Amino acid sequence: MRGEELSKAYASADIFVMPSETETLGFVVLEAMASGLAVVAVAAGGLTDILTQPGVTGKQCPGLMPCYYTHIGMGC
Fold first, then answer.
1. What is the pTM of this model?
2. CA-to-CA separations, 60 to 6, 12, 19, in angstroms, rounded
3. N or C, which terminus of the chain has less Cβ within 10 Å?
4. Burial class (CB in 10 A: 0-12, 13-18, 19+), 39
5. What CATH code would you report for 3-72?
C-alpha cells in the first residue's frame, strides 16, 4: 500500500502494533504516529529511540507476547 490507500488504512485503525523484535528504524511506526494512532511496539532497535515517552508517543514491551497480554489482549 501507499499514498491514499495507506492513509485510509491508518485512518480506519484504532491502534498500531509493531511486533518486530529486529526493527532497525521503524518508518512504519512514524507513519502510524503521524496518523494519530496509538502505538504498541516491542522495545527493539530504533523503536526505543522513537517511543521515548511511554503513554504519549506509544508503549514499549520487552517482547511480543508481553505486549499482547499487557496492552492489547487486556483492552489497554
1. 0.76
2. 24, 22, 10
3. N
4. buried
5. 3.40.50.2000
Return the C-alpha cell found at 14.
Answer: 484504532
Cell for 76? 489497554
Domain ranges of the chain: 3-72
Distance CA 23, CA 30 (A): 13
pLDDT digits (tens, 9 = 90+) for 19-76: 888 877 788 999 999 999 988 888 888 888 888 887 787 888 877 666 666 666 544 4
**10 Å Cβ neighbour count for 31?**
14
